[in-house]
Amino acid sequence: MKLIGIYGASGFGREVMPLARAQLATAGAGSFELVFVDDGENPLISNGHRVLSYSQFLAEPAVDKQLSFAIGASQVREKLVLRAERDCVDCIDIFAFNAVVLDDVTIGPGAVICPFVTLTSNIRIGKHFHANIYSYVAHDCVVGDYVTFAPGVKCNGNVLIEDHAYIGTGAVLKQGKPGAPLVIGRGAIVGMGAVVTRDVPPGVTVVGNPARPFVK
């Protein structure tokens, strides 16, 4: 029997669990059990599924084990992924049945694509990408590894988003130009509702319309 774990028993993980359940049932995955994996203090059962620590997950007798990493903090997500890889645990891609993926789109392993997400054409996306509900990525965009889209992100064409960037709920990324994309730098944070019309340097947080660096 396959053992599929959703890493993260609170928040986003509880949204990913029913997507995984529907995907596996539709795919005819055979005999499987879905569990939450979380190293914090949790009840033994959440939303009808067992909650295991990572060590308990590894100790389960199932030979075929996979994990989806429903962890919002991208640096933590990467650490957990690397640990699982060292333990020879594969990742699983989770796609909502009503997500739309059009022409020439490549996506790295471990993606979580939520309901009503649209990925249009000629797009390159790295590993362990999270696209929350109602987000879209338009033509000729390049998205790095461990990038997170909160709900309702509007990523227009010719945008380059580097690794570990976080794009907040309802943010709008202006369309770039062929050969001169709008760039969101590595580890940058785009605040909720921000309208980004210029490049965002690595590690910088921007907010507002038009988006400007956040000053405490």
Automatic annotation (TrEMBL):
InterPro entries: AcTrfase_PglD-like, PglD_N, Trans_hexapeptide_repeat, Trimer_LpxA-like_sf
Residue ranges that the Swiss-Prot or TrEMBL entry lists as coiled coil: none
Domain PglD N-terminal, first and last residues per copy: 4-81
Superkingdom of the organism of origin: Bacteria
Family in the record: Belongs to the transferase hexapeptide repeat family.
PANTHER family named in the record: ACETYLTRANSFERASE, UDP-N-ACETYLBACILLOSAMINE N-ACETYLTRANSFERASE
UniProt protein name: Acetyltransferase
